[in-house]
Write a structure and sequence with these properties.
single chain; alpha/beta; Rossmann fold; 7-stranded parallel sheet; 11 helices
Length: about 325
């Protein structure tokens, strides 16, 4: 109605300016409701209001420094990612504003760099004195991330990292008491603790749900759905941690971001080509190449170059 009144007033004013009296009217009617598109900031807004644009990242890891990422962490990430940030990660920072505390749903193929999006947000939270949790579907993934994070963040950065998987080596007590900076948990373990010890949510300010596509899994999906439902429900009590949900491509998102109440960053780009094939008992791998041809090689010929590439990525820059 405000827009309509403004249009009618503008028409009458312009008519009066040329000495004509007009009584404008709208023809037709609106049925089924009126929906206006959601306004989003684009290139024109950034050009008109550069002060409101915020810091902008590039592919260079050093471009994260203005966001408050310490130099020691930038150095570690630069050693780890020689090629810098990919486009998905740059968009998560610039458009999703994950380093400014905004929640985000990231949907992209496997091996596209989603996990590092959550890792950047978690590291920024810890640097600011906020507690973060990383939720993963399997114990093996929790243990793998724990070893990786301890080696990367536990030494020079002195980050307190705990894990809770339901195993004997769990660190449930320090997690419940808040004696940690970053917690790594399986879905089920976090759900059990959040229900039995609801006070833990008062101290958590970032939740990263990795492999969020498990919400569609017939057996494990209920755990992910209950976790997200619980996080949405506690918003009514003023508890609203930043949420980063990382999902593989799930087809129709079915209003997933609207339900979570956050933006969605969707990408179909696959940095690592997906190769489908058959491995027989002799160790021969037959696959369909991108050009449509069929190739057959021994599996060792494929794994050898991959291992060499991994070793090269891990090699210090000083060598």
């Amino acid at each position: 109605m405000i827009v309509a009144d403004s249009v009618l007033a503008r028409v009458r004013a312009e008519a009066s300016r040329i000495g004509v009296t007009q009584t404008p009217a709208f023809l037709g009617d609106i049925r089924g409701g009126l929906t206006l598109p959601r306004l989003v900031r684009g290139v024109h807004f950034a050009a008109a209001f550069p002060d409101l644009r915020g810091h902008q990242a590039t592919s260079a890891i050093t471009s994260l420094a203005p966001f408050g990422i310490p130099n020691s962490l930038i150095h570690e990430w630069s050693e780890r990612f020689r090629g810098g940030l990919n486009q998905l990660q740059v968009d998560a920072v610039n458009t999703g504003r994950i380093l400014d505390g905004q929640s985000l749903l990231v949907i992209s193929p496997t091996s596209s760099g989603k996990t590092f999006v959550g890792e950047m947000a978690a590291a920024k939270a810890v640097v600011e004195g906020r507690k973060a949790v990383f939720l993963l579907p399997y114990r093996a993934l929790v243990n793998e991330k724990y070893d990786q994070f301890i080696a990367l963040y536990g030494g020079q950065l002195a980050m307190r990292i705990v894990r809770c998987t339901g195993d004997y080596a769990d660190q449930v007590d320090p997690f419940v008491r808040g004696k940690y900076d970053l917690g790594l948990l399986t879905y089920e373990m976090f759900l059990r603790l959040a229900v039995s010890q609801p006070q833990i949510l008062n101290q958590i300010e970032l939740v990263v749900v990795d492999e969020a596509q498990f919400i569609t899994d017939p057996t494990r999906g209920i755990s992910v759905e209950l976790i997200l439902t619980y996080l949405i429900a506690v918003r009514e009590r003023g508890i609203a941690p930043q949420l980063i949900a990382l999902s593989a491509v799930i087809g129709d998102s079915n209003n997933f971001p609207d339900w979570l109440g956050c933006k969605a960053l969707v990408s179909s780009h696959r940095p690592v080509p997906l190769r489908e094939g058959v491995l027989d008992r002799s160790g021969m791998f037959q696959c369909l190449e991108a050009d449509g041809t069929v190739s057959a090689r021994e599996l060792s010929q494929i794994l050898g170059p991959l291992r060499a590439a991994q070793m090269e990525l891990r090699r210090p820059a000083t060598e």
